[in-house]
Amino acid sequence: MTRMSSWEARRLVLRNDLTELQRLAGWIEGWAQRGVSADVSFAIQLCLEEAVANVIMYAGAKDSRLVIAVDVERNGTTLVARIEDNGRHFDPTQVPPPSVATSLEEAKVGDVGIQLIRSFASGMDYERRDGCNRLTLRFTEPQTASQRSG
Hints:
The chain has four helices and five strands, in the order E-H-H-E-E-H-E-E-H. By secondary structure, the chain is an alpha+beta fold. It has a single domain (10-149), classed as Heat Shock Protein 90. Strands 1-2-3-5-4 form a five-stranded antiparallel β-sheet, with helices on one face. A hairpin with a 2-residue loop joins strand 4 and strand 5. The N and C termini lie close together (7 Å).
């Protein structure tokens, strides 16, 4: 039986600022060089950027106390990305939230982002626990021929 190595969890803490998306992209590129396929790396980057942007725009708008933590870990062929924030109750998969007045254009942009996440992630769960919003996204790394035979 082949033993699969697992990554230690990687964590990045972001401020409530859309310019932080550039730092998030660089962070993803840094750990993706450790053996994640380009396709999966791109999918994770796209999904995390969309979800974090929604958290900043809706959960923590103008709240400098908002802290967003992003974790990524590998478990075999599955990569799990978690986004946690201490903002008001907000499910980033429901954009825009019903309690926030938005323009029709902003609502369409948010909806496109969520559709992208749903099309790239193999799984998505949201929960509110201990005063934090937690979004978990799962991505499946395609197996190589040697992984299938081992």
